[in-house]
């Protein structure tokens, strides 16, 4: 607490009021509206003050009481906490409001009076004399009964928001918190008055010595209790924890996370909570409530936290893979938000997608603004290259605009190359270095392509809303781009990035553009699909700063896949068919380590390989004229015929005819499996 200047008041109550006034911050608009109501002698005003627990409703009511008393008003205070919600008791507590002149009636914890809200609105308040001012403060907004023409000019609903960063700092300064700790405390409390007060008290007890300040579990537990209160059942608590862990919650996501629960009732309960916001993508909690609930469960029950996280991770991965159209970006954003504590480094993105910025297509009139924005973040040579690629691949550019102003907030250029032209390699040393690395490490096959995040520009430094959307769009490219073999993120100062976002990536090649050095953080997604990489990053990140979850050495999510050329792949398919009845030989076959088998969920890789082979043979029978080649392959390999002559005899075919069918069948099986290797096991050729 700050040192007291001047003489102390004569009474403790005077001292308390003085300290509350000294540490009071913000609420200028609310105070101005209340003072105007006090000055209006011939009107009747009801303020309905609503907001979640701890947002400062009671503090503001005390300030209203002081303001009203200073204006010469009679103040009647009623508190629903611990009171009886019956008309007779309320009327007895507030009797003076009915008989006094220009009385101010302040009702705190109004949610306790919800059983008699209709009586208060229809029977009690209309009996107050003209000139009265009423403030009803509670967690729940006014009921539907207030939607009435008679109340339109009388009722003013005030949703009490968090304090602005400036008001939060003013409050901390008044409470004696050292300036060096303001940033950490404000980042934690997010403008929530109760959180700011508890943090200030914690700093006071520590004497301000903890320069690396973090909230204690005591503070977190107190805030969880104050903000959330009692919940009806363990399932309701779990629904809250799911809601806190993901960006937005839908009934479907609850159903996946809580199998067997009445998710319809749970979702309806969630959307009624005062700290829950309802948006187009579902319901989401207040930022502070989100972080408190998540941190509390992470500390209190690490095993349950990990189980919940894994279940949600699998569900959101599946949603991201199957998304289409306008849901692609949203599903990628939801997946990124889930991993905000994992190895993707919190300082790179905030994990919040609140609509401040939106993604848009590049328009011709955007060109100069894109180049001007590039010039703010890069040298002349890089700006010239942005100009070059705007001509060569204009469709590669995506822009991000501020929702309110429409101003350009950033842009992304995602270049695609199957085979770059020589002119392009000569023009851009970054593209040339990336292409050289791909060719030297693991070349593209067939129509596979390389995607390069060549420019990722945000007007504001990361983490920022623009950076969040750029990250989500890149993830969407990685998940959905057909035949994407390699990707490359181009970032300045590569040593800094290696220590943060890309700790788990290989050392990058570099390229020089003018005086600026860029790191090319490339990845071969054929060797490790993006889902497996995200999963591995998630596991490693969680081991670093969360519940310990050992990663088994044999876990498929941690295995690198092998990338075979087409001739190597065909040889491996033929060898696998020859080894159909020899599990040891199948286990050593290179196909076991390819995408074809590595992306199939199975405890037994040998059985997964057999499944892939047998499905290809089955599809072969669906081709026109494919029945005979299918029978030739099946009898020769799957039935274990000793020799090809015996297989021809068993099929009752001349040996030359049998060989023709077998050759055609093998070629077609290789084609089918190669297509699945390139496109993924869920895809089949037309």
TrEMBL record:
One Gene Ontology term of the molecular function aspect: ATP binding
- Answer whether the UniProt record assigns the keyword Coiled coil to this protein: no
State if ATP-binding is listed as a keyword.
Answer: yes
Q: Which domain of life is it from?
A: Bacteria
Give a Pfam family name: AAA_16
Q: Where is the AAA+ ATPase domain?
A: 43-165
Keywords in alphabetical order, please: ATP-binding, Nucleotide-binding
Q: Which residues cross the membrane?
A: none
* Protein name (Swiss-Prot/TrEMBL): ATP-binding protein
Please give the organism.
Streptantibioticus ferralitis
């Amino acid at each position: 607490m700050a040192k007291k200047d001047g003489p102390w008041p004569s009474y403790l109550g005077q001292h308390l009021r003085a300290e509350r006034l000294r540490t009071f911050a913000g609420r200028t608009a609310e105070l101005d509206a209340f003072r105007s109501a006090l000055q209006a002698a011939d009107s009747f005003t009801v303020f309905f003050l609503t907001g979640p627990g701890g947002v400062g409703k009671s503090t503001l009511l005390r300030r209203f009481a002081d303001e009203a008393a200073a204006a010469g008003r009679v103040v009647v205070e009623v508190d629903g906490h611990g009171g009886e919600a019956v008309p007779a008791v309320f009327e007895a507590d507030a009797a003076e409001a009915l008989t006094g002149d220009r009385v101010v009636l302040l009702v705190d914890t109004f949610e306790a009076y919800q059983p008699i809200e209709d009586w208060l609105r229809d029977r009690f308040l209309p009996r107050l004399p003209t000139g009265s001012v009423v403030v009803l403060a509670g967690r729940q907004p006014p009921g539907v009964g207030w939607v009435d023409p008679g109340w339109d000019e009388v009722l003013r609903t005030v949703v009490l928001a968090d304090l602005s960063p400036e008001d939060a700092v003013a409050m901390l300064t008044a409470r004696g918190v050292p300036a060096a700790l303001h940033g950490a405390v404000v980042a934690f409390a997010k403008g929530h008055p109760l959180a700011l007060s508890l943090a200030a008290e914690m700093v006071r007890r520590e004497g301000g010595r903890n320069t690396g300040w973090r909230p204690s579990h005591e503070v977190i537990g107190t805030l969880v209790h104050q903000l959330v209160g009692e919940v009806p059942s363990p399932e309701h608590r779990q629904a809250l924890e799911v809601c806190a862990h993901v960006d937005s919650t839908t009934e479907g996501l609850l159903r996946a996370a809580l199998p067997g629960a009445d998710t319809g009732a749970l979702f309806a309960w969630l959307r009624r909570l005062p700290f829950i916001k309802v948006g187009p993508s579902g319901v989401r909690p207040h930022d502070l409530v989100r972080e408190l609930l998540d941190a509390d469960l992470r500390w209190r029950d690490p095993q349950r936290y990990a189980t919940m996280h894994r279940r949600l991770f699998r569900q959101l991965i599946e949603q991201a893979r199957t998304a289409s159209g306008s849901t692609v970006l949203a599903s990628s954003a939801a997946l990124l938000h889930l991993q905000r504590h994992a190895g993707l480094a919190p300082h790179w993105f905030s994990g919040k997608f609140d609509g401040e910025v939106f993604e848009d297509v590049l328009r011709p009139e955007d060109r100069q603004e894109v180049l001007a924005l590039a010039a703010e973040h890069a040298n002349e040579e890089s700006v010239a290259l942005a100009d070059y690629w705007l001509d060569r691949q204009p469709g590669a550019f995506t822009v991000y605009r501020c929702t309110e102003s429409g101003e350009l907030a950033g842009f992304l250029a995602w270049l695609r190359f199957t085979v770059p032209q020589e002119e392009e390699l000569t023009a851009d040393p970054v593209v040339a270095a990336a292409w050289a690395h791909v060719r030297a490490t693991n070349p593209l096959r067939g129509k596979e392509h390389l995607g390069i995040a060549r420019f990722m520009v945000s007007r504001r430094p990361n983490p920022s809303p623009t950076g969040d959307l750029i990250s989500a769009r890149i993830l969407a490219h990685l998940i959905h781009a057909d035949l994407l073999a390699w990707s490359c993120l181009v970032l300045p100062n590569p040593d800094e990035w290696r220590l943060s976002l890309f700790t788990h990536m290989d050392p990058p090649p570099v390229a020089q553009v003018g005086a600026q050095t860029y790191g090319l953080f490339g990845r071969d997604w054929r060797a490790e699909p993006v889902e497996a990489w995200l999963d591995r990053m998630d596991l490693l990140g969680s081991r670093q700063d969360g519940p310990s979850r050992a990663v088994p050495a044999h876990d498929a999510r941690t295995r690198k896949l092998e990338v075979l050329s087409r001739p190597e792949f065909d040889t491996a398919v033929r060898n696998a068919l020859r080894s159909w009845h020899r599990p040891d030989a199948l286990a050593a076959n290179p196909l076991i380590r390819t995408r074809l088998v590595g992306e199939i969920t199975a405890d037994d890789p040998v059985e997964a390989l057999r499944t892939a082979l047998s499905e290809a043979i089955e599809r072969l029978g669906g081709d026109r004229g494919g029945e005979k080649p299918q029978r030739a392959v099946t009898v020769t390999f799957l039935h274990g015929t000793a020799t090809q002559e015996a297989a021809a005899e068993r099929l009752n075919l001349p040996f030359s005819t049998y060989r023709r069918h077998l050759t055609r069948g093998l070629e077609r099986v290789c084609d089918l499996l190669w297509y699945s290797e390139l496109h993924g096991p869920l895809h089949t050729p037309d």
